[in-house]
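As promised in the previous annual report, we have extended the structural survey to additional targets. Below is the entry for Alpha/beta hydrolase.
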Amino acid sequence: MTARFLTTRRRVLAAAAGIALIAAGTTTATAAVQNHNQPKPTVVLLHGAFADGSSWNEVTERLQRDGYEVVAPAVPLRSIAGDTSYLTGVLAGIPGPKVLVGHSYGGALVSQLAGTSGVKALVYVAAFIPQAGETLGGLTAKYPGSEIGPDTTNVITYPGGVDLVMKPGSFPTVFAADLSPREQAVLTAAQRPVAAAVFDEPVATTTAPASLPKYALVATQDKAIPPAAELFMAERAGATTVKVRSSHLPMLSHPKAVTALIEQAAKN
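The corresponding structure token record, generated without further manual editing, is:
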């Protein structure tokens, strides 16, 4: 009698355990399917000063190969406020979730656009991460190491404004020291001037929300933005930070590392 009771009880418990395992497995499988079915966010790549969207070509190709929609708009490079307004319109035409990625000056714009609908993460690549009231020039001067200045830039004056462009002999060493001479020459020829006023323009809007995930790549051989400044801003922002032994253009010299960080943010 006792033996039969114990045997029956074991069978009941085993059956219950089996049902629980099936239920747990079903829940896990359902969650996996739901996660798989979620659309990948569109990755928006914002270039910096003296550059254009082609500076992201190596990263764009890798992201597209991995199934991501990518938009690399032309940034006007006229003013932080004006460029932010223009890019707000660009983002309005991109449906669904978005990851914003900024290089150099583009990082300031990423921070200003952080509150845009659908933005799920911010990525800064050798970039400025300013807070309200700060200037890019002030952040650059906070630490030694930047070689951008009167000795390395030419001034372009025109009715209504003043632009800066890197001197042909300075661009390779300041921006692209770890790229080939052929790549340096092409980038030097294709650089886009930036309004000189952007470096003294205070960031007007609020700092990017603390709740929004942030990722930063610090280029430890950067001669445009001091690496110490990049690290300071990344840590202050609470960003998940990686360091790469790179010039100011890690998306060209280390595209694999940059792509990996962007995809980490996209999967958050």
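The longest strand covers residues 119-125. Residues 39-266 form a domain with the Rossmann fold fold (CATH 3.40.50.1820). These points will be discussed at the next consortium meeting with the crystallography subgroup.
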